[in-house]
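Collaborator request, handled under Task 6.
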Amino acid sequence: MNPSLTVTALLFLLNPLVVCETHGPDCSTLKYSRHKVSCLCGTVQVCAGDICGRPSDYQLDDDITVELRDKAGTTILDSKKVIVETREKEGTTQVGTKVSYKTTERTFCFEGKGAGDYLLAFVLHKNGVPQPAVKFPTNYSRKRNKPCNSIYMVEPTCPK
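Structure tokens returned to the collaborator:
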């Protein structure tokens, strides 16, 4: 058998393995729409369906890392831990009684970046081990005047 033909056949068989490994352990972004926001800031919620909770409610560590990646998602440009903020708020019950309650938000912000297309990757951890990142394509423009109120709902397990 021709040696170059043998090498070509071997490379052809190994090609699917190489392709799978180069994409990394990130979750699919096909179900998420592009966020068009005036800043690279937001709030992260961990949600299974429409029920949101703390990461520990889903057997995950409380640490969440947000990575700012290039458009292709291959290069990490910046990385931050989510900041947990607890605030006291006031509301009204169904019977009209005023009550105060506490709310917890997990926030992040990347400042000083240039306009363009980015990818935000949210990395949850389980027992200190990073789980596959959930990615959101984002278009950032310094010229937009909309407030920075983006909420990113991250599934506790990698979407199928």
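The cover message to the collaborator said: "The chain has one domain: 25-154. The helical segments are 3-22. Please let us know whether this matches your experimental observations."
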